[in-house]
Design brief:
heterotrimer; A: 291 residues; mainly alpha; two-stranded antiparallel sheet; C: 233 residues; alpha/beta; Rossmann fold; 6-stranded mixed beta sheet; 10 strands
Amino acid sequence: MVNWPTFISQCFNGLVLGALLALISSGLTIIYGTLGVLNLAHGAMFMLGGYAGWVAYTYTNSFIAAVIVGSLFVGLVGVVMERAIIRYFYARPHEDQLLVTFGLGIVFVEAVRFFFGSLSNIVPAPPGLGGITPIGFMFYPTYRLALLGIVAVALLVLYFVLYRTRIGIIVRAGIEDSIMVDALGINVYRVFMVVFGIGAMAAGFAGIVNAPVVSIAPDVGEAILVQTFVVVVIGGVGSFPGAVLGGLIAGEIISITSMFNPGYSYVMLFVAMTLVLVLRPYGLLGTAGRE
Amino acid sequence: MLRRRPFLIEALTAIGLIAAPFVLPYLGFAPTTINRILVWGLFGLGFDILFGFTGLLSFGQSAFYGTGGMVAAYLLTVVSFPHVMTAVLIGTLAAAAVGYLIGLIALRRTGIYFAMITVAIAEVFYFVEFNPLSRFTGGENGLPGVPTPTLYLGFTTVQFNTDWSMYALLAFWYFVGLVLALRIVRSPVGAVLSAIRDNPLRAAAVGHNIHSYKLTAFVIAAAYAGFAGGLLGVMQGFMPPDAFTFDTSGQLVMQTAIGGAGTLFGPLVGATVWLYLSDFFQTTLHIGATWKLVLGIVFVLLVCFLRRGIVGGLQDLAARFTATAREAVAPEEAPVLADAAPDAEIDAPPHRRGGYSGPILEARGLSKSFGGIVANRNIDFTVEDGELRGIIGPNGAGKSTFFKMLTCELPPTAGRIRFEGRDITGMDIAAVCQLGLTKSYQVNQLFTRLTVRENVVIAALAERRGIFSLDLLRRVDRVAGLDSQVAGTLALVGLSARAGTRVAELAYGEKRRLEIALALASSPSLLLLDEPLAGMSPRERAETVQLLKNIRRGRTLVVVDHDMDAVFGLAERITVLHEGAVLAEGTPAEIQANSQVQEAYLGGVAAL
Amino acid sequence: MSALLEVERINSYYGDSHILFDVSLRVERHEVVALLGRNGAGKSTTLKSLMGLVRPRSGRIILDGTPTEHLPPHAIAALGLQLVPEERRIFGSLSVEENLLLAGFSAKSRWPLERVWATFPRLQERRRSRGTDLSGGEQQMLAIARALVRDPKIVLLDEPFEGLAPIIVRDLLTTCRALAEAGLTVVVVEQNISAALSLASRAYIINNGHLVEEMSTPDLRRQPEVLHRHLGV
């Protein structure tokens, strides 16, 4: 039977997972909002972050280096992907954008499989953050606690960039009306490139900081991608606050349901998504007209 | 093209299916590979109707493939249901039923939302199959021991227990599936589906219930998926749980795009390429791990450079050859409308007036605001039967919003609209068009990938068949009265000689006339024309004014345009909108003499 | 010295729809020019063509000596041209201040934030309000201010007075006149012809996509029948 400590610790797990989903979904949603492209390779970006970090870790034995390399590498992949391929798809139909990003996701996953094999790898938690920590009446893995803090800080940084810097103003304006941004004299295509890089980097960062919790494997991105979609549908496409709210809701649903029967966690997620679609078709914090 | 010769495609397919076992082994195809290709091809027939023909890209087809397969396998193994193909058909029905329910949810949204929702749905099915329902589905073990079908022929019983006998079974069912899919694609429903793919807004505006048609396509795709899933279990003697994985959906999407969406054969060709390469890399080159990487790269390149896939690319190539050949023979002369039109007699619709004798359209107190901005304020507007009314107004007068409310494209914030005495406020645009009120658009809203004739057929079908009809197996040209209606409409707008031309190849003036033809083909009793002269050269303007004079016989027209000379020359009465409200109404002479109207147009100059 | 803006026989389309036919214009430095015509005549399309939002299929546009007809909008803006669009296109989710910061303040701009606040005190009062919460007049002020921040050589005003109450039109007109007197070059498209003519020293009249008249404002006032012919009902 479910007891209180288990329940609280599952709620905590939900919070950690929710924060992580919020971060990944923010990346997906600002890319979609600004560029109008749904990046089906976003899950692969999460996976790439883990691998790039793991490679850096094996060379340096430094977790910090792993996080920096993981995020920067994926940001770079995003920028190159936008410059080399995605920008030719802005004028093409949505289906083509979906197909090409889907294909790129497969290429990334299979390339990693080719170079590193299918077996999973582990990046250990940084020294001092291993083990478990007693909090009140329960024990909780120390790194997970730290992860909550790390992801919260990353979300705050993203918030700061989006809401307190000029580039953030440009991104938010671009989500509304990218043509007018261009007419004001801001090279909107350069902004698109930057946004794609930031969005990818958010997923890559999440991929490496999550690696000590869930070992990395070429296909870890797939489940994350699906969960991210549910988050975005619940929160509303193109909305940063929506991604955060949706992420927390989805994280808690998955964790609390898993406590009773993990098999139903996706069913409950789906029920929540359906409810939102019926009651608020544009998502909890979304606005009409984004399709 | 091929479509004109009945049963040619069917015959060629039958020949190909019979020849395959004699040819393909020499090319290095193992019999089991060929059988798997057929299952994927069958799976893809339904998916192509959904994606290639209707434009709905689903990443969740594995849900229905798995459902059909598991239901059939469960019946055959656990329940020991005796008849194999009946079990497969029951699985198909189950998949279709699930497809109907899922479609109700997924089709609430379009575009990327639809894609995301289908992905999520497929993942739910995967987890449900693996865990809560593992008692029935065998969880990660799947269901082994699926029996092979037998066929009792009276004197002997055929056992489909070898690879080649299984091929015969699968080839037969693929052929049945293909013939059905061809019937569907060539039916009125198929025509409407391709209209939805090209321009859903206009498909609804000419009077089709596009939601029901999309749901139809979704259920068809689910049924094909379920059937293919059932055959998968029968073919392998084992129903694998990985039928439910996201990979399955992804592989289907990729195979279809590689082969060419919208061709029906694309998925089969794509599966051939896919499975052949997979075998080739693993057994010949012994680099099994890279085949998916190579395929992924090939796929990305195809999407970038050959969007219509292999079959589509070949079609384009063939079309280019025949087109250059035809051009060399006879360059067609485009006829001038003024000559063609007056001869064209088309009966104006004696519409469904049902004894009602009041004004044909009556709007009372119509208002519309967006956020805090008021576009229309308390408009009263009445049109008598048979009238030709002009509407003019300076920029920002709210004419477009007003028109959108009249055709129920936009709900009014306040006020009521009555059409032929019936309150139509809050109805949807397709239903209003079915009643006989429709509009031609200021910016062309055509079905751009179809020909001129096919465009008009879409509109005429709505009038002939009603808002929704499931005549999946009827040929389009068997719809009673359709031909004469389409021919009459084309003659009326002077496009008869261009009937076979694709919209993309039309001149602008011709597109404008086709725009009007789409509205005319649904036989409206009241036709609203939103800036029919927009963007036309002086000669095209003169032709179109003539066209409007021709079509007004027996119809009621309301015309918005900026061309004062045209509006004053055509209309018997004119309504002037200004700042969202009615400023004046009267005969052209009265309007010209109205000082308020002059003041509105001259922006205070009169007072200078 | 050549004109600030020279337009030579441009032809513009929306899709296949031919909107402008061989339109030519000239705007001198520190001049206010009005572009008049009925709706649908092609005035907005002319401005959009100048901004690069609609690309002319033929013809030349020369801004201060540089051909711009092939440049993207942001490059044209960098050369010193700003459009205040008809729909205003304020960023509704951004605050007033953010709408201005978006355009960015360069160190040598003649329009630092203080000068914007001094010119439009109402905007300073509402600096924290979101764009969607502004009234029509405030939105119009913000749209003009947003263009000025980029320190343009020439501003295109598309229907700046549309849908505004007369008293607000009068205020806005005063502001615009002050800007013109300070040396700003302006092309104004406006349905309110008396307002447009009170700003402009010269006017072009455009009809069905063709340029039909060019006249100085005093001449136009002397010959109102010209206006009646091209703009009246």
